[in-house]
Structure formats: structure tokens, C-alpha cells
Amino acid sequence: MSFWGIRWLALTAAWLLTAMLTFSSAHAQQRPDLPTIGTAAGGTMSIDRERLIGDYYMRQMRAQAPMVEDPVLKEYLSDLGNRLVRHSDNVRFPFTFFWIRDPNINAFAFLGGYIGIHTGLIEQAEDESELASVVAHEIAHVTQRHIARNMERMSAAAPVSIAQVIGGLILAMANPQLGMAVMTGSMAGIQQRQINYTRQFELEADRFGMTTLAEAGFDAQGAPRFFSRLAAQYRYSTQVPQYLVTHPLPESRISDTRARADQLPDRRVPPSLQFELAKTRVAVRYGSTNARDMLTTMQANERRAEHNHQHKKDAARYGQALALYELERYAEAEDIVAALREKDPLNLFYIDTTTDIWLGQRRFDEAIEFLTEAYIRRPNNQVITLNLAYAANRGGNYELSVKILNDYILHNRDDRVAYELLFEAHQQSGDAVAMHEAQAEVLILRGIFDMAIEELHHAYSKLPDNRTLARQRVQGRIDQVRRLNNDRERVMNM
Q: Is 138 annotated as catalytic?
């Protein structure tokens, strides 16, 4: 059983963190050695506290969870998610959307605006409105502050060790049964009292999420359509997907979403090529089927696609190109992508795969020239920038890679792939100071602060005495990381 599919466990852990923080703030005068993180006001967690805990969880996620660091899929999900956020109420901070490589059908949200989507979810969705309905539901959990609203109910849980809970979270990554045993052992006394609240929050998230869905221009019927199909598909199954474990679908809930959808504007949403391409990319790149069998499947999909559904045909052709690339049949893959790109030259899916093919053929200069032209049109776009940096590293043009990555990172401080490419460029070009700094940033994003500080000390030690500004910059970053580490310790010790 996949841990990240167990919503009630994740939510209960987050609620438990909240309660501990509340308990600790209330007893700070009795424990002068214990620092506080904000104060509870009227039973509501502060936004700063939400961000702190969310940031901690996200660093643990990067370190332990099977996250999909695929720039094209990340761009697609972020565009979809932020389109929904723009039409949501009570948005208090930027949202972060990310993929988890897991075939189980599920999605989850946690403090600070972080939304995780399993790759299995998009494989099950039949259109973009169905996928968007789930994302909108998770956004509603955050904007309605369901975790914060449960703070007072969880106060009794304060004596439980937060370190034990976090240990269960992390352990469950590698060993789901053992991790769940640790956590359920920690929280057995509080689970039942959460059930009614969880049901209430699920219904509320359905209603707010569907309104957001419609206002963002999607088909509100996507929610009941997706729910109904899942419920029918697994009604008599002994092994249900994680989404149904964590999001039970009784008839009353399906009826409620259907009635709600009937009251919202009736939209005839055109098919989405981007959705079809993302779904195909997940199936080929992150599914369990080997490339040879996937090629056969995609060829069959192309034959089955209706003549009036060109998007499905194009996606099936794209899937064939991906499979051919995996099989190192580069010339055949290039022919397919070139034809697709001729119809849609700025499509990021096609640009990314063209780059992969040319690099596989060691056509580094062509790839760099092609991507440089795209970069001029769309500077700092994550797909084009990271592909160009990767091509530049492969082609030995480390100066270009460093330049565009430094510009990109100014606006994308949390992109681990960018720092990894920057580390590679500095390593290959022999810039030891910058190499250690880039490696430190990778470690910081994963919450490995002690090792990050060591890397920064290495960078500092290699700077000559006359590089005063550079030494001050590195020392300043060391101080920042120490503060991050102290924040982590405060969370863990409460």
C-alpha cells in the first residue's frame, strides 16, 4: 500500500503537528527553553506557521518521495493548477504543484499550498476537466484551511512525540507497512474523532472545488463523471485504488456533486492536446510497460482514435516517438516529432523530445542552436531553459549553461534540476567554489542542512582573502541555512 495514498494518515499527521504547535505556544511560559512559531489567534493557525510546516514537509518530500522532476510535466501541472488558483477564493500564498511517481490513483494537499498528484491519476482521467476536478478539490482543502480549522480538536494529541510522527512519515516512504505502524501506533487515540470532520471537509472541498472548476472554464460535470466511473469500476473489487480509500464515494456524495454540477454553467470544453500529451508522456516514461510493448500500444491507439479527435492521434504519435527514443531508434523518432512540430512549433512537449533525440545522436551544436532560438522567444521558461542548459553541458558550453541557469534561478529558487545542472557545469569547468555552492543548494532543497553547511564551508575555504564580497555572500548563506535548520529543530522538538 502506498503511504502517500493514505490521505487520512497524512492529514492526521499534519493536524497533529498543528496541535503540537498550538500546545507548545500555550505552554511557552512554562518552558522558556522552547521557542514558539507564531501564536494561535482565535483558534486559527497563522499563515507564517502554515508556511513553516509546509516548507518542512516539502523538503522531506524532495528527500524521500519518488517525485517526478520532469520539466514538461511540471510545467503542464503548474499551468493547470495555477489556472484554478486564479479562480479560487481565500488564496493566501503561492501554490506549488508536483507529481509523485505512483500508479495508484490519488492526490493530496498539505500546509503551505503544496498539492501532490500521483501519476496514476492522470492515467485514469479521460479528459482534462476530470483531472482538474481533483486538483480543484485539493486546492479547496488548502484555501478553506481545513487543517487549521481542526486545531482545537487536536489539542489533546499534544503529548505525542512529533519526532515519532515525522519518523513514521519518512519511514513509510521506504516501507509503507512499517511506517504506517509507527504512525498509527502514535495516533490511535485520535483517529476516530477525525472521521466526521474528514467527511465534512471532503464535502466542502467538493463544493468549493467545483465552483472553482467551472469559473476556471472547465466542465463541472468532470467531477461527478470521474467519481461515478471510479465507483462503478471498483464497486465489487476487493482491491480498490488509493483514491477510493482516502476519498470514499458513497452514492450520496456522487449525487451531491452531480446536483452541484447541474447548477453550474454548462460548458462544452474542447479536447486538450496538452492533457493528451501529458497523459501519454506519463504512460510511456513513468509507467511499468517496456518501450517495445508501449510502441505497439501507441500504434494501436493511433489506429483506434476517431477521425474527429486529432488530439488523440497526435498524442499517440507522440507516444510512439517517445518509445522509439527509448529504443534508440532516433531517426524514426525524429521523423514523427518533426511532423508534429511542423503543426505546432512552440509546443514544449515536442521541443523537449526533439532535444532528447538530437542529444542521443550527439548533435549537440544543432540542439544548442535550436534551443537558443526558442530561449530568445521564451526566456526563462523552465522547459526551454533546462533543456538548453542540459544540451550546453553535453556539448561542453559550460559558460552558456551557467549564464542561463543563474538567470533562471533568480526566479525559480526551488528547482532542484536547475541546481543539479549548475553543479555539473561548474564541476566540468573547474569552478570549485561555485560547484560547492550549487551542491549546497541541492542539499538545502532536500532539507539536508548539515551537509549543505559543510559544502558552503568548502566554498568559503577556497575563496582567497581578497574576494571580500564573495566571502560575505557565502557566509551570509551559511547563516541563512543555520536559521532554516533551527526552524526545523523547533518543529521537531515541539
A: yes
DSSP code of residue 474: H
pTM recorded for the entire structure: 0.84
Q: Which three cell numbers stand for residue 315?
A: 498524442
Catalytic residue (choose from 127, 206, 326, 334): 206
Residue 86 and residue 104 in contact, taking contact as beta carbons nearer than 8 Å: no
Q: What cell numbers appear for 493 in the block?
A: 522538538
Which residue pairs, CB below 8 angstroms and at least 24 apart, start in 366-369?
367/391, 367/394, 367/395, 368/392, 368/395, 368/397, 368/400
- Which one of the listed residues 138, 219, 352, 437 is annotated catalytic? 138
| pLDDT one-digit tens code per residue, 397-415 | 999 999 999 999 999 999 9
d(CA 425, CA 434): 9
DSSP 245-279: HHS---HHHHHHHHHHHHHS----PPP-HHHHHHH
How many angstroms separate the CA atoms of 382 and 482, rounded? Answer: 29
Examine the residue annotation and report whether 414 is marked as an active-site residue of this protein.
no
Please say whether the beta carbons of 439 and 423 come within 8 A. Answer: yes
Give the three-class secondary structure for 100: strand
16 pLDDT above the threshold of 90: no
Most distant CA pair in the chain: distance in Å?
A: 73
